Recover the amino acids of this structure.
């Protein structure tokens, strides 16, 4: 019988559960709506139901050797509780680990979603073979993860890697974390939609207004498509995204001087729209990057030498692969 692991990726809007084998093959994936407005116990019940279905389906041909769960917010490794989760209202201080283990009747390994995305890219993606790297995940919010010496760097009790809450505008837009001007408020899918709606309300974005009025699910993808068609207001929004990312990455490069920084998450699909501004800002902000960057860097290019900034390779599945790898590492000890 082959070995497999069950991986869970709980986001601000989506819940995905997958079976992944030791070689990194995704055997099956289940996608559900997270419906985070409901109480945590109901969401966890949906999660555990899907985990049980996968476990039963592969019981005869494969042996389950661990369950890894990635979720947003600051997860306290000491208590098994979510300490703070701005994008999961009602989950603060909730005993997530104990609830999942009670419903499943077995042990699970929990981790911040940015950390598991970092593990996924390290295992099978852009940072394969590297022991030191950082990731920024651009989704409903902005997550982050740090890998040092081949392992997640959690800090004292699990709060390290909250890169989305680095201020890039000290007196900027209020953030759900209580701070102002966080990267999350300028480089997430939610931020793109907010900036688009602000431009529409100000009466200076007629094309955005037209698309917004005709699209009941108006989102970041629609803004990106307008930007790539040359719409100036949409393009300006993604320049703001790029500038914010360049400022934040500049801080990370100057402080950490790691060999690779990966940009992932759903909004990374808009790379062509924000990368030129991001690289321009990064060269200006980070001496350690500018010293080894190409003089005329193209959008999507990476730095030379030991400072690489690149797009994630695993797309939205990085968190699933990382959660499986987390379970695998836990099993290995």
């Amino acid at each position: 019988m082959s070995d497999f692991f069950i991986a869970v990726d709980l986001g601000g809007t989506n819940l995905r559960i997958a079976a992944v084998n030791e070689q990194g093959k995704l055997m099956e994936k289940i996608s559900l709506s997270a419906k985070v407005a409901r109480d945590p116990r109901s969401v966890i019940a949906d999660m555990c139901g899907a985990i049980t279905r996968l476990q039963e389906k592969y019981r005869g041909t494969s042996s389950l050797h661990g369950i890894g769960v990635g979720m947003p917010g600051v997860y306290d490794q000491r208590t098994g509780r979510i300490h703070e989760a701005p994008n999961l209202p009602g989950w603060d201080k909730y005993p997530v680990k104990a609830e999942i283990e009670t419903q499943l009747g077995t042990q699970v390994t929990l981790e911040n979603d940015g950390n598991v995305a970092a593990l996924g890219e390290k295992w099978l993606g852009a940072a394969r073979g590297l022991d030191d790297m950082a990731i920024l995940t651009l989704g409903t919010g902005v997550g982050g993860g740090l890998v040092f010496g081949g392992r997640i760097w959690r800090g004292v009790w699990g709060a390290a890697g909250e890169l989305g809450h680095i201020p890039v505008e000290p007196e900027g837009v209020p953030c759900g974390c209580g701070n102002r001007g966080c990267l999350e408020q300028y480089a997430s899918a939610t931020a793109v939609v907010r900036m688009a709606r602000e431009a529409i309300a100000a009466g200076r974005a007629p094309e955005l207004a037209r698309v917004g009025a005709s699209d009941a699910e108006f989102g970041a993808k629609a803004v990106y498509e307008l930007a790539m068609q040359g719409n100036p207001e949409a393009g300006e929004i993604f320049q703001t995204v790029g500038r914010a990312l360049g400022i934040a990455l500049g801080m990370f490069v100057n402080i950490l001087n790691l060999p690779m920084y990966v940009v992932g998450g759903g909004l990374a699909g808009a790379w062509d729209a924000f990368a030129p501004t991001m690289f321009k800002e990064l060269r200006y902000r980070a001496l350690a990057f500018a010293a080894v960057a190409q003089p005329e860097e193209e959008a999507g290019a990476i730095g030379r030498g030991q400072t690489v900034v690149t797009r994630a390779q695993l797309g939205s599945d990085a968190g699933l692969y990382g959660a499986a790898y987390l379970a695998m590492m836990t099993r290995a000890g």
In short: The chain has two domains: 2-121+317-332, 129-312. The longest helix spans residues 232-256. The CA atoms of residues 184 and 207 lie 25 Å apart. Confidence is low (pLDDT under 50) at residues 294-304.
